[in-house]
Design a protein that fits this description.
The chain has five helices and three strands. It has about 140 residues and is of the alpha+beta class. β1 and β2 (about 45-50) form a beta hairpin. The structure holds FE2/S2 (inorganic) cluster (2 copies). One FE2/S2 (inorganic) cluster (FES) binds near residues 41 and 43.
Length: about 140
């Protein structure tokens, strides 16, 4: 019963007071956006990272999740987890870690998978934008 209580408090805390909800302004620099859906239920998660180009570290994170409480809690948890990490470190976070931290039941595993997919997709987006920016940089003069 202790475990159940703990589970509820931790998930409910991230559910009732989700951290870092929102999105960055359209032209904000250094932002990567991940938008993913869960085939199992149709829920959608958008997660954005803001990266310091020099250090390669994630300095800010925002999310919007249209989904169940576990998906919201997972994304809220993820935003706190990846702040300050390098892209490589952030890309290695597994949904099983989130599920364990939030004590999600097996039926809610796919909700935490959304958060893993979303951060990976955001990292990929950031990297592809960097490549695109480098390719379109025309030397002046
Ligand atoms: Fe729709 Fe999870 S099944 S909120
Ligand atoms: Fe589908 Fe939670 S994301 S039920």
């Amino acid at each position: 019963a202790n475990g159940v209580r703990f589970y509820h408090e931790k998930v409910i805390n991230h559910f009732e007071k989700p951290r870092n909800v929102g999105s960055f302004p359209k032209n904000e620099k250094g932002v990567g956006t991940g938008l993913v859906g869960a085939p199992a239920c149709g829920d959608v998660m958008k997660l954005q990272i803001k990266v310091d180009d020099d250090t390669g570290k994630i300095v800010d994170v925002k999310f919007k999740t249209f989904g169940c409480g576990s998906a919201i809690a997972s994304s809220s948890f993820m935003t706190e987890r990846v702040r300050g990490l390098t892209l490589e470190q952030a890309g290695q976070i597994k949904n099983t870690e989130i599920a364990k931290e939030l004590s999600l039941p097996p039926v809610k595993l796919h909700c935490s998978m959304l958060a893993e997919d979303a951060i990976k997709s955001a990292i990929k987006d950031y990297k592809s934008k960097r490549v695109a920016a480098a390719a379109t940089t025309v030397p002046s003069g």
